[in-house]
Amino acid sequence: MTFAVRYYTKTGNTKKLAQAIAKELGVEALPISEPVSHKVDILFLGNSYYAFSIDPEVRNFVASLDKNKVGKIVNFGSAAMLNSTYKKVKAVADKAGITMDAKEFHCKGEFKGVHKGRPNNEDINAAVEFARQYK
Q: Has residue 109 got a pLDDT over 80?
């Protein structure tokens, strides 16, 4: 099984999760500005809500993916207010012809003092456990 981890973050919360997941999978966590250049079975994609939607950069990244290089996307992320970005990412992935795994990881993230210290060690450990099931 081959993996890649890409993430988009404005606060650094999702990057923490991405780095923990990537370490567990034995790959490097890279920002979405780095294309997926080699064939992978699973792309772990970290993102969050910004102004009640996924960031346009995330939308453009998913739309640009080569369906011959990415077997499926596993969504993960953190957010202070809203929960899962799954439906938003899946809508773009469906148009690109890329399968989304039905499972995802999500936890609270700190934003302007709300959910202070999140993601915390417990959240990071949960993200690692989540990734471990794909090995």
A: no
For 110, which DSSP code? -
Of the candidates 12, 19, 18, the residue with the CA atom closest to the CA atom of residue 76: 18
- CB half-sphere exposure, 82, CA atoms < 13 A: 13
What's the predicted TM-score (pTM) here? 0.93
**Helix axes 13-25 and 121-132, enclosed angle (nearest 10):** 40
- C-alpha span between 48 and 77 (Å, rounded): 6
Q: What strands, in cross-sheet order, belong to the sheet with 29-31?
A: 29-31, 3-7, 40-47, 70-79, 99-108
Residue 89 in tokens: 């990412």
Let me know how long the chain is.
135
DSSP character at residue 75: E
β-pair partners for 78: 107
pLDDT tens digits, residue range 44-87? 999 987 666 788 999 999 999 999 999 999 999 987 666 789 99
